[in-house]
Specification:
Layout lengths: L9 H17 L5 H23 L3 H27 L5 H24 L1
Helix pairs in contact: 1-2, 1-4, 2-3, 3-4
């Protein structure tokens, strides 16, 4: 099946969900630098998938998928730090970590198909 729109890419759909959840969990954080960084990193995952797809070139799409994968790693790293700094508890962070790891694997799969 050929994907016609980036909105149909499951990795993008899950990355959007991750962004929404990250925004919800950190929206009231007074640590603005931390909050902005983890929110930007999460949005970067979905936006790089979208931007790469819209370039209509497998080479460019692959490049943007690597950027998205890097941002996904950044989100996971920030979630670890958030737990260490007691900004989020383990029960809140764990499903976000699992989702980010799943997205990262999906992006890897997309890269392999290109």
């Amino acid at each position: 099946m050929k994907i016609e729109r980036f909105e149909d890419i499951i990795a993008w759909q899950k990355a959007k969900l991750l962004s929404v959840e990250i925004y919800k969990h950190f929206e009231n954080s007074k640590d603005y630098g931390f909050r902005d960084q983890i929110q930007r990193a999460s949005v970067s995952v979905m936006n790089n998938i979208a931007e790469g797809f819209e370039r209509k070139s497998n080479k460019e799409f692959r490049f943007f998928l690597y950027v998205a994968k890097g941002s996904c790693g950044e989100v996971r790293s920030m979630l670890i730090l958030a737990q260490e700094l007691n900004k989020i508890n383990k029960d809140q962070a764990q499903p976000l970590q699992v989702l980010a790891e799943e997205i990262s694997r999906m992006i890897s799969g997309l890269i392999k198909t290109l």
